[in-house]
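Weekly puzzle thread! Below is a chain. First person to post its structure in token form gets bragging rights.
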Amino acid sequence: MAGLLTPAAAADALAGALRGGLDPEGCPQRTALSVPGGGELLLMPAASASYAGVKIAGVAPGNPVRGLPRITGSYLLLDGPTLRPLALLDGAALTTLRTPAVSALALRHLAPAGRPLRLVLFGSGPQAYGHLRATLAVRELAEVVVVARRPERARELAAYARTLGPAARTGTAQDVAGADLVICCTTAREPLFDGRLVDPGATVVAVGSHEPAARETDTALVRCAAVYVESRAAALREAGDLLVPEAEGAIGPGHITGTLADLVTGRMPVGGAPGCPQLFKSVGMAWEDLAVAVALFEAAGASRET
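Winning reply:
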């Protein structure tokens, strides 16, 4: 799968689906099943006129200590009219491409443009690497500051970032002060930084959780930010970054400013709302998996006739 589709091309595929009329509000809900031993099995189906597909993903928090990936799974792509299987993709690799592509698409519309930006990147796993590459595909970076629980992993990611061009170092949560971009790709269940430190012109992306009780950003940031999501319905089911502040009485359901579709189709202005931070909260949706899986399939030159 590596090399078939760049992050920018994957973002283009997502934008194409939205401009083609896809409505994320009608996307089927994610089905989650608890597995004895502490894991979770996720089922994510989606369909369009030409294709259908389903991702079966496993989330095994105990895997990293076993030397195994935390996310596992497969993606089955089907021909839409006949439902004939077309391809079986690595589900974890698909997610590692899809999630940064969603963020990159949001950054195209929300992040400052016209100058090199300072990025603070939380996390050091596959999603952090993917988000670094995807961000560089849509914005020039002057500096990357990596914040992670494990110092050696943070140093490795910072060293990798330097091979891509920008200056890079490890840092702390305090580095969000003065950042143009803050991207959170972690398994955290509590806020990673003090939202009061975020500049009004900054853009924050949080992708780490789809659980109602887990969040990477705090109430202070959510309360003052213009908030964008993939789907209002999905966010109000799964986005702990929004649901926890709502439960605290700090915000209401109407606090969401707009959706990814609003940005892509021009219903919301480029650059987001002025005078406040821009927060894009992603939970991951099945239509995104389908759009990127189709783009991968077509990029491979695979034929439906074979």
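Puzzle host: Confirmed. Bonus trivia for everyone else. The longest helix spans residues 91-110.
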